Amino acid sequence: QVSAALREGRVTPTELCQRCLSLIKSTKFLNAYITVAEETALKQAGESEKRYRRGQPLGVLDGIPIAVKDNFNTAGIETTCASNMLKGYISPYNATVVQKLLDQGAVLLGKTNLDEFAMGSGSTDGVFGPVRNPWSYSRQFKEKSVPKSHSEDEDSNWVITGGSSGGSAAAVSSFTCFAALGSDTGGSTRNPAAHCGVVGLKPTYGLISRHGLIPLVNSMDVPGILTRCVDDAAVLLGSLAGHDPKDSTTIQDNFKPFELPDLTDISKLSIGIPKEYHAPGLSSEILALWSKASDLFKNAGAKVIEVSLPHTRYSIVCYHVLCTAEVASNMARFDGLEYGHRSDTNKSTESMYAATRREGFNDVVRGRILSGNYFLLKQNYENYFVKAQKVRRLIANDFVKVFGSGVDVLLTPTTLSDAVPYMEFIKEDNRTRSAQDDILTQAANMAGLPAVNVPSGLSERGLPIGLQFIGQSFQEKQLLTVAKWFEKQVKFPMIQLEVKRHDHGAFQHQKSASFS
Amino acid sequence: VLNRRCVEAAVMTGLALNCSINKKSLFDRKHYFYADLPAGYQITQQRVPIAVNGSLSYSLCIDNKMSQMVTKTVRIKQIQLEQDSGKSLHDDTRSQTLVDLNRAGVGLMEVVMEPDMCCGEEAAAAVRELQLILQTLGSSQAVMAEGQLRVDANVSVHHPGEPYGVRTEVKNINSVRFLAKAVDYEIQRQIEELERGGTILNETRAFDSKLGCTVPMRDKEGKQDYRFMPEPNLPPLILYDAKSLPANLNHQQVVNIDWIHERLPDLPSVKRGKLVERYGILPEHSFTLLNEDGLTEFFENVVKQTQMKPKKVIGWILNELLSYLRQHSLTVKESPVSSFLLADLLNLLEKKEISSTAAKQVLAELWKGEGKTPLEIVTEKKLELIQDQKELEQICQAVIDGQENE
Fold this sequence. Notes:
The complex is a heterodimer of chains A (516) and B (406).
Chain A: H1 2-8, H2 13-26, E1 33-36, H3 38-53, E2 65-69, H4 96-103, E3 107-112, H5 139-144, H6 166-173, E4 179-184, H7 190-196, E5 199-202, E6 222-227, H8 230-240, E7 270-274, H9 284-299, E8 303-307, H10 315-330, H11 349-360, H12 363-376, H13 378-404, E9 409-413, H14 422-425, H15 430-437, H16 442-447, E10 451-458, E11 464-470, H17 476-490
Parallel strand pairs in A: 2-3, 2-4, 7-8, 7-9
Antiparallel strand pairs in A: 1-3, 4-6, 5-6, 5-10, 9-11, 10-11
Chain B: H1 4-16, E1 20-21, E2 24-25, E3 28-31, E4 41-44, E5 51-61, E6 69-83, E7 87-91, E8 96-100, E9 107-113, H2 120-137, E10 151-155, E11 168-173, H3 176-195, E12 204-208, E13 213-216, E14 229-230, E15 237-238, H4 257-262, H5 268-279, H6 283-291, H7 295-305, H8 310-327, H9 339-350, H10 356-367, H11 374-381, H12 389-404
Parallel strand pairs in B: 11-12
Antiparallel strand pairs in B: 1-5, 2-15, 3-4, 3-14, 5-6, 6-9, 7-8, 10-11, 12-13
Helix pairs in contact in B: 2-3, 5-6, 7-8, 7-9, 9-10
């Protein structure tokens, strides 16, 4: 919608950009952004405007304000990964996906907050502080929350965004941008999407280039797409997917961007409900919503069957071994010598490394590095790493079998519950939380499959709940078509944000929410 | 991202060394922390390298005489592709180390030989032959002094019949000559140590070219666990041959072993054989021709331009030209005497216009590089052979008369 508005001249890119920038200022308390690139964004908006005036926009994305998670390299703009290790680091190049967006004329508003080095499921463990879920400030949530006693800070019961792409999700959810890039290694795009009520797409591994995405787990990372509706996600996907010679893990096949059809007849569709995803700890609300969704499909004529992915319960442990091993390897480059933080110690190279890494990394990162190195030791390699790889193969095969039996798409919950209040979340440590929260999302990363979170309803507390669709390798079109149909049926309510605007009055949220 | 040219070079080298090329090879990360390794790991091929089980034949002269040559073979264990690290320059006076990262990440080809050699001479001959092969293939210019070819020698000693002893690794060898010295020194050192009742440590030693000995290196790593892990960013390297090449794959996208095989240039051993056959020279001559950069070409050019038989020409090339070049540390390319000039001179000799002694004198003049032709020098110095019988008689008579007068 907003793209059409830009083309028709109803609004200019500069106005759009300015509105977003001022909204960012008004919502600063959300802590969604680490860096706001005001000057460059306005410049990009200005250039976009010139193109529109000439009648030559670069495409649908020209002039559209977007945000990028702070673990993507952006030339000339600080890239920190929410870590002391990279504070002040200004990247000399753009990640391929960032470059693609800029080449299409998108306006880069800034870098969003995350868990340090994308490790976490709350977006609470970065050095710039936690991200607050915009829904904490929505009328929907406030109406349902138990009034607190006067002495307590009104602000203390805000809920988390989920993670690790919490900043991106919050940015999209609070209207400060029209789309955002996140990353997804174990669910890091889908989890916050579910908690913030936005669409979170994890593409098939190998479809979108990882060049310039600071790696966590090379064999599972993918850039993630966060938008307010499924059509927008398809548009972003179209502009990002495709082979990149700089990333040897992208597939060579030509990618053709697509538009999503409006499904009316779903009788040929087969939806699988994996029974193992009825995980311990799954809230009754989500279970009910999941059930309702599957009924929705059934009543509309689709085939809905229960399927089994028997190795699901091993995936968390397997993920931990492989993830920490790769993390230990990928973090080895941060030694303080070439870039980033360097400790003042100058006794010896080794002591400088040790001090730099102790000072630069938080506990979560250090913990994972230590575990990972343990698993990679010669005496442990066979028993842990190789075994985990074998289990990974079994998990991937589970999916192959199920899809091979005629199922088109799987329907599962995305999270175990709605967003938890921050104060409660931090009572458990990162590792425990991750182990709990990743359970529904990370098998898709293990198998490299595409998956998308679609906001499906509000919980009793007035917070968003999302459901996840998992598709077959490189079948994003089918996956998103089903997601789009579902989205239409569900009619997820728009957030009613109650925020004092930076320049004038209470915020009107009725402006166009999507750009397609 | 994998460099195609590196893969091709490795395949060429593997084929030239009679290796089996692995159609599927894998990449791994070898982790250790060091200032010249910016990523904290080196990408290498630990599990499955690109080529295995080859052999390298080289020749040795017995008794230092060029007349008797023996052929020996050393087995090639494997060839693997890996990344180079940066370069560390240690400034001991200021207790600091400077790190040059320019070469970090550049592709390297590591050729691993089995311990089939038994002395410095053999090692040097094998490496020399490898250098020639690499230069012929174009895989590398293999100049040791410039670090294009780096050689680490692993040396151990044992009594005949007993298992191999503990080995040490000797690094910092900058030329083929030093290689022979280093190996021989280390063999001696180990023998002396063992005869004293000591033990050999499995350590890394550096060759000190000034002192001609090996010294223990700073303990870089100790017994390290490199925590090998498959490199997740590089898919397995798949190579094809004519049989396995799928029809729909773009020729530009793949490396075809057979295609490379067909285009291999003549290897040194083949070249030498051809020289012997074509020109009737001795095998040891062919070695010298190939060992000196540009000498073969020079020789062949002279042969083309003269009527003198190659068997005779070779003497002039090897005994006169080469020794002069060596005396003055010149390369063939820098020779003040061109093949044209030499051919010219040899023609005079062949036509019997001058004697061979005279020819050598002319050559000595030609070295000065004053631009005179052989004929000019001959005329100037009156070096012509006199054919006229009468004239000779007169000269002889004059000499005899002269003698009588004393």
